[in-house]
Amino acid sequence: MDGQPYADGPEVTHASVWHQIQREAAEAAAAEPLLGALIHAGLLHHRTFPAALGYRFSLKLASGEMSEQILREIADDAHRREPALAMAAEADLRAVYERDPACHRLMQPMLFFKGFQALQAYRIGHWLWDHGRRDMAYFVQMRCSEVFGVDIHPAARIGTGVMIDHAHSIVIGETAVVGNDVSMLHSVTLGGTGKEDGDRHPKIGDGVLIGAGAKVLGNITVGRCSRIAAGSVVLTDVPPCKTVAGVPARIVGDAGCSAPSDMMNQILGLEGIV
């Protein structure tokens, strides 16, 4: 990373990522002229990474109830006040690029991957929530659910370097906590177990891999670097560095590697055969 400051913002460390995205975008526009307008509007037109993020947020979430201009002003204000938003977005972008075999260029998640886009929209909603703008945060949540099929409560706390692959039917509840470098696939639920109030949602440790369709329910802890097999229903705490599977889920072995969320290995070994 070159650490050069943007002309219209505070010093950041993601300038080289933005330069690479713009190089990829120029090549893509030349190779596919029919997408030229989309690529120029979404990437090449913008001087900075945060500006492009704000544009995409406003374009995707705008509706007859809230204009693109207003949403763009909200996003730009959030990024101006909180540079960590763009830093988190860069970490998420790198996570997708490094872990998803379908991602061959950094520009792809920015333009085409709804998991990345929904996560950045959540980050704006969470910023609004933390600054007391609760109703606007709920609006962002509603539009994310309608547009992306991803329903993340704005009060949930999500770390950086997170990949949500495919991202269809993701639900993350109000008091859920997701650590850094977590990977999850489609149809994952981090939910409650009933009508109880208060702290009622899962706490997911760093480096955890959550397979497609897994349901993690209640105020339980999933230890760092664990694996949750696809389709599992997790109702009790999971120790660090373990693999759980089944309905209800039980421990079927060790995680099998030091970084499950990076390796993305969802095949159970012999220890998982019953």
From TrEMBL:
Residues 17-121 form the Serine acetyltransferase N-terminal domain. CDD domains: LbH_SAT. GO terms for biological process: cysteine biosynthetic process from serine. Its EC number is 2.3.1.30. Keywords: Acyltransferase, Amino-acid biosynthesis, Repeat, Transferase. One of its GO terms (molecular function) is serine O-acetyltransferase activity. It is an enzyme of class 2 (transferase). One of its GO terms (cellular component) is cytoplasm. It catalyses: L-serine + acetyl-CoA = O-acetyl-L-serine + CoA. The keyword tRNA processing does not apply. Pathway: Amino-acid biosynthesis; L-cysteine biosynthesis; L-cysteine from L-serine: step 1/2. Belongs to the transferase hexapeptide repeat family. This is Serine acetyltransferase. The lineage of its organism: Bacteria, Pseudomonadati, Pseudomonadota, Alphaproteobacteria, Rhodobacterales. The gene is cysE.
